[in-house]
Design goal:
Number of helices: 5
Mean pLDDT: 87
Number of domains: 1
Strand order of the largest sheet: 3-1-2-4-5
Strand content: 25-35%
Order of helices and strands: HEEHHEHHEEEEE
């Protein structure tokens, strides 16, 4: 009962969902995007549900969000041609999937510099480095057809090893 009430309350704070949803933009994240990334709400509901099924959550607010967002997306107008921003608190839920959705052409990318849709994105990795088997790091970069930077973010993978003690 409390979950349903909190979900309804959260939904009442959201703007009307439109046909298209901006899932990433310069004002999202920590400045890594120099582009807008848009997905039709009708596609995003399935992508979002698939993404959140792969992660575990513990906070009440996150559980409310994950219950409310598909309901919000399902209420979207299917042909109004308008755009709405993804609620910022949902951005962290999909952050790890945005690049794969762009690669799979499930999302459209708008170059803020060209002020045009990008049909061919050059995705590169720079500064790849490794310290032993403990740390791998690189910078992901995306560019539009005209060479404008669309995305830049430094990635790291750290490995932790646990000592294993032999049994006597």
């Amino acid at each position: 009962m409390e979950m349903e009430a909190d979900t309804r309350t959260y939904l009442s704070t959201l703007p009307t969902c439109h046909q298209f949803v901006i899932i990433a933009a310069p004002e999202f994240g920590e400045g890594e995007y120099d582009c807008g990334i848009i997905v039709p709400a009708s596609k995003l509901v399935a992508l979002y549900c698939e993404e959140v099924e792969q992660t575990t959550i513990s906070s009440w607010a996150s559980k409310v969000l994950r219950r409310a967002l598909p309901l919000w997306l399902e209420q979207a107008s299917t042909n109004d041609g308008e755009v709405v921003s993804l609620p910022k608190e949902a951005f962290r839920d999909i952050l790890g999937s945005i690049a794969s959705w762009v690669k799979a052409e499930k999302a459209q990318v708008w170059c803020c510099s060209c002020e045009n849709w990008v049909s061919d994105i050059a995705m590169t990795k720079e500064d790849e480095g490794q310290i032993g088997n403990l740390l791998f790091a690189w910078t992901d970069l995306w560019y539009c057809n005209n060479g404008h930077k669309l995305y830049e973010d430094t990635q790291e993978i750290r490995r932790f090893f646990r000592k294993s003690y032999g049994r006597s």
